[in-house]
Amino acid sequence: MYLRLKDKFVLRGWEGIPYGMTDTGTGRTMLLDTITFQAASFCDGKTDLASPLILPAHKEAIDKLVKEGIAGECAGGEGLAGHQKYRRTEARFADSVHWSITGKCNLRCRHCFLSAPQAKYGELTTEQCLEIIDQIAGANIGKVSLTGGEPLVRRDFWQLVDALREKRIAIHQLYTNGVLVTDELLQQLQTRGIKCGIYLSFDCCGCHDWLRGVTGAEQAAIAAIKRARRHGFEVGIETALHKDNLNKLAQTYELLKALGISSWKISPTMSVGNWAHEQGQYDIPIKDLYDAYLQLIKKHHGDGAPFALMLGGFYYCGKENDQYIIPLIKYDGTEKALRQTVCRSCRINLYIMADGRLLPCIPMTGTYMEKEMPNLLTTTITEAMNSSRYFDIIDTRLEKLFRENNECAGCEHKLKCGMGCRANAINCSGSFYGVDAGSCYFFKNRYEEKIKKIF
């Protein structure tokens, strides 16, 4: 009997993680143990699986691959396509790339971390972007999310999309303000077999135009949600929360539920980019923010979780799910936490700025961290992931933070909190090693218990 991996599955490896398999349709990467990798390698259309040399453990793993639709029967001798064969990179493992393909925008958002209305970070040329796509492929990264600025203002948008497809890099998410989301755009995505999530900014009923700086932006966003849903795309909403739209959460909840969105992520504005000019006048006191979150959680849970809800690090619950997680609770409270990276997301998800620089995460844009990070115009992802200031930051372990921060090192919550979010710490204290005031307030005021009471 002969089996062959389905065409969209490819075998990959990285520095320190030798075996993996990526579904090039979705970009999902599965890290494999030795037995499972060997079993997948036997599904090459040439190895006779009836051979007594195939071990029982291999047969069990092969059966699972067939059951999961990863491998199927074939005629002997078919063989794997060239792109499917095992390819190892010198880069350390990264799961995805979040890429600002432009620093330009067609709106004038007051809170833009990129200062896109002023095009502060500009955009790379087509040739430079194609070189970065080659680097992503060379690092065996399976999926990319495209953002900006407004990614749809790039004149070569489809050229970049097609280059990603040619390299079999899945477009996982498209972030947009919605103004340029037309039927033609959605049809072009579908024609190319791209079924990415469409992620739209919507900053609460009656408040969106003010924050986005353009009259009619709110209606354009609502129209884009409806249009994307009609074409069968899942729609995620991201809301920037400030003092003047905090009381609009309940009304916005009802609208988004009626529109049939898949997820809603809410985060308070941060004093970087354009928002720094507001000098804190629209900042929400932490207690007011968290109390509003609790009210929204009650509504969401009582309503059967009609969409996924993420409230910063405070709370996450999937669609139609009665189980939740609290991202701020990062560790299990034991000494094992000391050797963990301070942010798992930054460790496996890259962010590429509009000017080609790597940053640990988007909220660090506009901070001093920018000047310390490598640029992919002069280095490569593989080099940056192995030895650079960037890798030093994303690979920082909790024990190092405690050596740099005596206040957190002496806290009773330190082995669960892990000093919170480093971008928030920079925003609060000006230091990567500083205190995240939001995380500190969460634990010291027992919000974990308050959330549990809702359930």
TrEMBL record:
Give the domain of life. Answer: Bacteria
SMART domains, per the entry: Elp3
Q: Which InterPro entries would you find in this protein's record?
A: 4Fe4S-binding_SPASM_dom, Aldolase_TIM, Elp3/MiaA/NifB-like_rSAM, Radical_SAM_PqqE_MftC-like, rSAM, rSAM_sf
Per the UniProt entry, the signal peptide is none
> Which GO molecular function, any one, fits this protein according to its record?
iron-sulfur cluster binding
Which key words are in the record?
Answer: Iron, Iron-sulfur, Metal-binding, S-adenosyl-L-methionine
Query: What region holds the Radical SAM core domain?
Result: 89-303
Q: Which protein is depicted?
A: Radical SAM additional 4Fe4S-binding SPASM domain-containing protein
Give the originating organism: Desulfotruncus arcticus DSM 17038
